[in-house]
Amino acid sequence: MEKGRAEVSYFRAQARWRPLELAFWAATLLPFVVTPSYLSLASQIAITALFALSLDLLLGYAGIVSLGHAAYFGFGAYSAGLLSKHYLGEPLTGLVVGAAAAGILGYVTSHVIVRFRHLALIMLTLGLGLLLAEAANSASALTGGADGLQGVKMSPLLGFKFDLYGRTAYAYSLAVLFCVFLVARRIIHSPFGLALRGIRENATRMPAIGAPVLAHLRKVYTIAAAMAGAAGALLTQTTSTVSLEVLSFGRSADVLVILILGGAGRLYGGIVGAIIYMVARDQFSGLNPQYWYFWIGLLLVAVVMFLPNGILGGLSALRKKPQ
Amino acid sequence: MFASLAGVLFDGFAFGMLLFLLSVGLSVTLGMMNFVNLAHCSFAMIGGYATVSLANRYGWPFLATLPAAFVAAGGVAIALERTLFRRLYRASDLDQCLLTIGMVFISIAAYAFFYGTVVQSTPMPSYLKGSVQLFGMSFAAYRLFLIAMGLVVAATLVFALETTRFGAQVRAAVDNQRMARGLGIDVDRAFMITFALGGGLAGLGGALAIEIVGLDHAFALNYLVYVLIVVAVGGLGSIGGSFAAAVVLGVSDMAGKYYFPWLGAFVIYLVMVALLMWRPVGLFGKR
Amino acid sequence: MLSARNLNKRFGSLVVAQDLSLELPPGVRYALIGPNGAGKTTLINLLTGMLAPDSGRIFLGGDEITGLKPEARVRQGLARTFQINTVFPQLTPLESVAIAVLERERHAHNWWRGLPAFAPAIDEAQAILERLRLAGVADRPTRELAYGQQRLLEIALALATRPRVLLLDEPAAGVPKDESAELFSVIAGLARELTILFIEHDMNVVFRFASRIIVMVGGRILLEGTPEEVRSDDRVREVYLGRAHARAA
Lengths: 323, 287, 249
Ligand SMILES: Nc1ncnc2c1ncn2[C@@H]1O[C@H](COP(=O)(O)OP(=O)(O)OP(=O)(O)O)[C@@H](O)[C@H]1O
Ligand SMILES: [Mg+2]
Fold this sequence. Notes:
The structure holds 3 protein chains of 3 kinds.
Chain A: H1 2-15, H2 19-27, H3 30-33, H4 39-62, H5 70-86, H6 91-113, H7 118-138, H8 140-143, H9 167-188, H10 191-201, H11 205-208, H12 213-239, H13 249-262, H14 269-283, H15 289-306, H16 310-320
Chain B: H1 2-33, H2 40-57, H3 62-83, H4 93-115, E1 131-134, E2 137-140, H5 141-163, H6 165-175, H7 177-182, H8 187-213, H9 219-222, H10 224-234, H11 239-259, H12 266-278
Antiparallel strand pairs in B: 1-2
Chain C: E1 2-11, E2 14-24, E3 29-33, H1 40-48, E4 55-60, E5 63-64, H2 70-76, E6 78-80, H3 93-104, H4 119-131, H5 147-159, E7 165-168, H6 177-188, E8 195-199, H7 203-209, E9 212-217, E10 220-225, H8 227-232, H9 234-248
Parallel strand pairs in C: 3-8, 3-9, 6-7, 7-8
Antiparallel strand pairs in C: 1-2, 1-4, 4-5, 9-10
Helix pairs in contact in C: 3-4, 3-5
């Protein structure tokens, strides 16, 4: 019995909140006081972090590579945008609708996607992403096409108007990020999360210990799609517009870069990656976007060759070394 | 109506030849090593810009620039294979994907830096301009040339693969890499040569593409999808499959643009996704 | 307990299973022997649903399982191990075995409660690891374990599904002789009512631990009988023992 308790405590220790984590979340409040003029950037970061977190569940924990994750982000963004344009501008409803719409799309597409691995999976996710982007482009009557969706009007959020400084926007994005993060954290420390890691580690062994691999993957795919949809909805609501870019291959590639940079398979990988990536892009905003991508390309090559577990992986390796 | 149908078929076939040149190398190298090279179209850009530079700056005749495009792209392919790609054959497909996407980004930025973002063109010799009258219809001379090039390359490849010793090694390696190694075939060397040839052919395709679709810095990304579709539909490692898939794709793309212009590339993507779902190893793939 | 009727399977022109029928009564320790390439692993793949037979039927405890997916068969009590270690390199043995226990207890879909809430399952996982002498390394990543320990973890994973029938594909493959004896004594110590079929090339081990033996050659069952019957059978001696003795000499 004594032994057993010790073993449960192994899992408890894994799931325990560490001081650094608490400090991190406390620090996310700093922009309100320290850099109030950068609050809209901060909310962009929070949204991107949320998007990267959803990809992390897929890629980092379940091992599903996706080159088309923007499909769900964009679907959520357009759903929330269309809702507020035509029916009601209440943000929380829009958030739920965006997440639900993307979740449904994720559930439907998951039936196809989780059957594939390797090259076929990469091409299929790429193809689905492009397909949706092209559909949105063609259906310009609905989406506004290349001009973007105009006339998105947001009502105040629980009585707070979306102000010019982005105070409400950041508070809102941060709150949603934190809530979804709590859910993701719960998932990865749950039996389901453990099963996902099992699939990532060895998908052939899982059926042999009684695990319905495809059902697990469909579920995580749906959850991740809904999270991505929530991120898209947030972008729509905090910027009051939707452009085709939300569905673009560039966005799918960016989020992959962000996650890999931060460290896939780590809860904070996507968040750390988003902070570094977005801040750097803001600092170099004077740079022609072409050249920005030159550095991103170089970074990708460097990370793959020298830092396979991302920045967080590199840091934790450094910390372990002296012992 | 019939005339336009014939025209669409002709233009589509010519476009298909272009796609074949661009993608055949990727198909064969993927079949051999399972190395996911999303930067394949960057080789095409190398060829394209080599032709633009030689023709526009140094006044080379167009035809003379084509071998140069082949050599330049093939040379860079060898250099990259030796230094970077080689280390990632055993890596996960994600890592391969990331590395090669990184290279796409780098190549796009590099060309934007050196050549700007305008669409490049290059002067054509008079005998490739205008059109030729055949069976009471007129065919663009350049497209005829393109078709001839595609057919010659396809025939040469099939012939070489079927009859030469090296071809047999490549076929064995595509069929079953491990068994080929067991038979004492130097798969790494065979792969390197195939990779260089594939890169060279893509470079040739890039040079030939200038007149048809133009060349700009984003070529590596814009045509990646087409190339992937050809590979996916044609099946890994199959030259005949790539040829057929490229023709089907070229014709349906042209037909889509001609008859349903408002749908854009939607049809193509739909076809790709549907085909992948139906047969993930491609129409002609063995695995 | 487990029975198969007229299983057939071919890969292209290669016949790997020809009219295989077998009947494993409860609690029996079966050895499956045969030269390399005889189709032993293929038989396990067919029984566990990792390969679909071209024809034939499979029953577990009287119920037909021919059409079931591998994971469904596991849930009915049919577990296996792999000839080549098929484990979870980055997970710890405790985590790996816990997956199997949680899956069996139908908790694996649960994403809203933390793992510490599943103490009985985790305790059971730990108990299984203790039984297989892996408790000392339960918290280390599996890839850091010695090869022999990973072989044991293979068995622990299968046991965690609480099987009625356990199919072991060369459990001692690649394990040194002395360790292999130890490993088989662990296997011999498993619950009496568990039906076990193990593939093994070492005839000493086979004769010591099996109560019955199946001999496979070229995708066919040559003979099924007690160790004595197999030992004295001329055909077996010819196709199998003869060669094995020749190799040993
Ligand atoms: N997926 C497959 N495709 C084609 N042939 C296969 C496949 N799996 C196995 N084989 C062939 O079937 C035959 C039987 O293989 P199997 O692995 O069942 O033999 P085995 O009796 O387990 O041998 P060993 O003692 O070496 O493990 C072999 O000739 C093998 O090459
Ligand atoms: Mg075997």
